[in-house]
TrEMBL record:
InterPro entries: Cyt_P450 (IPR001128), Cyt_P450_CS (IPR017972), Cyt_P450_E_grp-I (IPR002401), Cyt_P450_sf (IPR036396). GO terms for molecular function: metal ion binding; monooxygenase activity. Its cofactor is heme. Coiled coil: none annotated. It comes from Riccia sorocarpa. Pfam families: p450. The chain crosses the membrane at residues 20-39, 295-318. The keyword Heme applies. Heme binds at C440. The keyword Iron applies. This is Cytochrome P450. Keywords: Heme, Iron, Membrane, Metal-binding, Monooxygenase, Oxidoreductase, Transmembrane, Transmembrane helix.
Length: 494
């Protein structure tokens, strides 16, 4: 009997007793959760159909793979739609997500911003842009920040920027296109858009410093859709190092500009000057970390996306000669009207840019077929019900550009047809610049920058693709595999 008692005493020693209590507590909690879930599930709509897959991994690899090709996401969504319907769930990098139907899902997301959900970006994107970037802000903080940045992109600002953008376009074609037989269009559009935004944001001229910044930004951008693995050799690790180097370069520019301002050499009227001198509602200057995060956002938004669209427009125009002729005729009419008014120089006014309607349709059609941003994310702040489905708090809602390829909204959707834009599309079917309170702030600037480039391009050059049947990829923005390698022919200005 003593032996049995001693054995029981050993079994129920203090440590063993605590372990037993922990196991019992976990069991009780599990039973409580299971029972409550049972009754809750009986009283609420079902979750959207789909498969969350394994914890964390889910469909991460197949989703990233879909994002790497031009038609990959379109095909991936179509397969899911065929199996589950237009609304489905999946898991990406540990996060449960719901792909919204189109265009109703876009409407719901844009109209309910800040009530049922707020802006969210995957870990790689939010980390690389930085926590104080306008991109990452939500609620009242976002409203205040956006109100300030709006003044950089309103109509008054566009009128002020236009002469500088136009001069840069003229200089670009003189320096890089004259006398060339072959060119890589994406390299050219990168140079044009990046030199333009560097001039307006930093008053930074072409040279070694700008080349270094461009190289690091290219390395940084490749990490946006990578796996968040911060180990040597992985793209995300390279992107983080590039961000660090970009910050060091911006630190030098901030220090130099502050010295100039202190010495009363404040003749540079650019966005950097504004960021260094503006104060918040309490009269405090912006922190350097906030300035650098938003300078990074402005540089990327002002060049990488516009450059991709321009290179793809050059690609599509070359494949459709009648489109090229239509653009030529439009810009010839603009020049004829200028001459009739006694303006025979290369200057442009906002009225001239507004007259480039067919050219803008060509760009819109390019964006429809090859959108720069294919999806966006919002995080639910409460449990919600959408179209008969229950979506829990902290899940992600995903809007996308899938309506671009739906024949219900765009007739013969895979055909490049700028004439379709003679009539406006149905609401929320075409959202290349996003929508709601987070719609792209630089939309009008990007439009002006691209139109000015094409204006000077078609005046002086015709071109053809050296590989018209080459594939289109995403890296992370859409581009021809050969970066739109073209044969160039200089023509007399009309």
């Amino acid at each position: 009997m003593a032996t049995v008692w001693n054995g029981l005493s050993f079994m129920f020693s203090e440590d063993s007793y605590m372990t037993l209590m922990i196991i019992l507590a976990i069991t009780v909690l599990w039973l409580f959760w299971s029972v409550s879930s049972y009754f809750r599930d009986r009283n609420q709509p079902p979750l959207p159909p789909g498969n969350l897959g394994f914890p964390f991994i889910g469909q991460t690899l197949e989703y990233l793979s879909a994002l790497s090709t031009a038609d990959g996401l379109q095909e991936w969504i179509q397969k899911k739609n065929d199996r589950y319907g237009p609304i489905f769930k999946w898991r990406f990098m540990g996060l449960p997500m719901v792909m919204m139907d189109q265009p109703e899902g876009n409407k719901y997301i844009y109209q309910n911003e800040g009530t049922s959900h707020h802006i969210f970006w995957p870990f790689t994107i939010s980390t690389l842009f930085g926590p104080e970037s306008l991109l990452a802000q939500s609620g009242d903080q976002h409203k205040l920040a956006r109100r300030y940045f709006n003044k950089f992109f309103d109509h008054t600002a566009m009128s002020r920027y236009l002469p500088a953008v136009n001069r840069n376009a003229i200089r670009h074609f003189t320096k890089y296109w004259q006398g060339k037989d072959e060119l890589v269009a994406l390299d050219m559009t990168n140079l044009y858009t990046f030199s333009t935004i560097c001039k307006l944001v930093l008053t930074l001229e072409e040279g070694p410093q700008m080349d270094k910044l461009l190289f690091q930004l290219d390395m940084w951008a490749k990490g946006l859709t990578s796996l968040p693995i911060n180990l040597p050799g992985f793209q995300y690790c390279k992107a983080l190092k590039a961000r660090k180097l970009i910050w060091e370069m911006l630190d030098e520019l901030l220090e130099q500009r502050r010295r100039e301002l202190a010495e009363d050499h404040g003749s540079k009227i650019d966005i950097l000057n504004n960021l260094l001198t503006v104060t918040d509602e309490q009269g405090n200057l912006l922190q350097d970390s906030c300035i650098k995060d938003n300078l990074l956002l402005l540089l990327v938004a002002g060049f990488d996306t516009s450059s991709s669209v321009l290179a793809m427009a050059i690609y599509y125009i070359a494949k459709h000669p009648h489109v090229y002729e239509g653009i030529v005729q439009e810009h010839k009419m603009i020049l004829d009207k200028k001459c009739a008014r006694g303006r025979d120089d290369e200057s442009l006014t906002m009225d001239d840019v507004s007259a480039m309607k067919y050219t803008w349709r060509v760009i819109k059609e390019t964006l429809r077929l090859q959108p720069v941003t294919v999806a966006g994310y919002r995080k639910t702040v409460t449990n919600l019900e959408y179209k008969g489905y229950y979506i829990p708090k902290d899940w992600l809602l995903v809007w996308n550009q899938f309506a671009n390829y739906n024949p219900e909204h765009f007739e013969d959707p895979l055909k490049f047809d700028p004439s379709r834009w003679e009539k406006p599309p149905a609401l929320y079917t075409y959202v290349p610049f996003g929508g709601g309170s987070h719609m792209c702030l630089g939309y009008e600037f990007a439009k002006m920058e691209m139109l000015v480039f094409i204006h000077h391009l078609v005046q002086h050059y015709s071109w053809s693709l050296l590989d018209p049947n080459g594939p289109i990829i995403r890296d992370p923005f859409p581009r021809a595999f050969d970066k739109t390698l073209i044969s160039v022919k200089e023509i007399r200005s009309f």
